[in-house]
Amino acid sequence: MDSVNRVLIDGHIMDYNYDSVYIVVEQKLKDSIPECANSKGMNYQVYKKAFDNSPFRQYWIVNLENNNIFGTYKLDAYLLKKKELKINNDLILEVEKINRI
Predict the structure, then answer these.
(1) What is the spatial distance between Cα 11 and Cα 58, in angstroms, rounded to a whole number?
(2) pTM here?
């Protein structure tokens, strides 16, 4: 949360969804991908291939009513937190549709 109440999630946002209470976010962060973390001297094509092929993802939940930010989570922990917070079952990310979670 910055000084004007904006939530900043850096990296590459793969997917997001929201309703009047929550925002859910799937993120891919280059520093969390071993092949990309030390990309100094790596050409763009090699870097992009390593980034695109990495299955690494992390997840966030933002409560818009009280400005609480939950994350980062791996998928299983994210899903458990959604249940704990009783987030509407219609508020899902593409990964949840694909895996029929």
Answers:
(1) 11
(2) 0.80
